[in-house]
Amino acid sequence: MATMTLTQKLLESLSCAEGSKKLTVFDKGCKNLVLEVSSTGRKTYYFRYQDDRNVTRQPKLSDANSITLKQARTLCDRYRSKLAMGEDPWEAKAELKRVPKVETFIWESFLPFIKTYKRSWDTDQSLLKNHVVPTFGHLYMDQLNKKHVIDFIGKHLETHAPGSVNRVIILLRYIYNCAIRWETTGITKNPTNNIPLLEENNTKERFLSKEEAEKLFGAIQKSPNKMLQYIVPMLTLTGARKNEVINAKWEDFNFEQKVWRIPMSKSGKARLILA
Asked: How far apart are CA 133 and CA 103, in angstroms?
């Protein structure tokens, strides 16, 4: 380790002593400027300083063969001025590196979280795997913007119904709300904000005719699954979901009041079906 006033001529003559891994030179002509000469002859400029926690840091400025000594000093002066104004450029770079990619956040943070409470997490996993990650996964979280979302909507509508597109947007909105709530590095806004959901006009109402109902009940009587003769009529008469019927228990029914209480519906709350 040595301290001297560097010159371009001196710089070119410096070499690492035999048996040493490197030679470190502090430049008297420019505060914070350090030159390192490796055993292979490579010369590199560094900026040596103490951060706000008095930790000594020495980020690289440039290879000496890429810029002149004068340029290195100018660069050094610029960074010293930023530090004097309370701005640490390397801390900003370090924070930028901590921003996760969309796919990283989804698989390592978001999905493990929703698995802890959401019964239909596997549906979300399918949307993430087939739509969100293939489209946005390669982007860093702070790179994804409204244009990406709007472009996705336009392209997805070519092959999917509005309802399918809406489910992806709702899921993406929730992902970013979680990232903001968890104070994820670099995430301060949600790219889906103020983007309205699409109007869904794909709802279809379909009722069985008397003839169709007779054919259906005749077919299930012939089915090798003997439980279908009880399950299908109950689905037809109540409008309940398949899992609600399959998981029904006798204690859920009040035959006097003709009420079926489903203790856990899709919304996570109990609901009643009246006869």
From this structure: 6
Which residues of 54-120 form beta strands (DSSP E)? 56-57, 60-63
Three-state secondary structure call for residue 214: helix
In a domain, 253, yes or no: yes
CATH number for the domain including 54?
A: 3.30.160.390
Domain span including residue 83: 2-97
**In whole angstroms, what is the distance from residue 150 CA to residue 138 CA?**
17
Q: The pTM is what?
A: 0.57
Do both 153 and 111 map to the same domain? Answer: yes
pLDDT < 70 stretches in the chain:
201-205, 265-268, 275
* Strand, coil or helix: 170: helix
pLDDT at residue number 201 = 67
Which letter does DSSP use for residue 26 in this model?
A: E
Distance CA 43, CA 60 (A): 11
Terminal C-alpha separation, the chain:
90
Residue 50 β-bridge partners: 56
* Domain end among 68, 97, 126: 97
Shared domain for 79 and 46, answered yes or no, is yes
pLDDT computed for residue 25 by the predictor? 93
The per-residue pLDDT for 26 is: 95
Determine the 3-state secondary structure of 127 from DSSP: helix
Long-range Cβ contact pairs of 213-216 (< 8 A, separation 24 or more): none
Let me know whether 90 and 113 are in one domain. Answer: no
What local confidence, expressed as pLDDT, does residue 267 receive?
62
Neighbours of 230 (CB within 10 A): 11
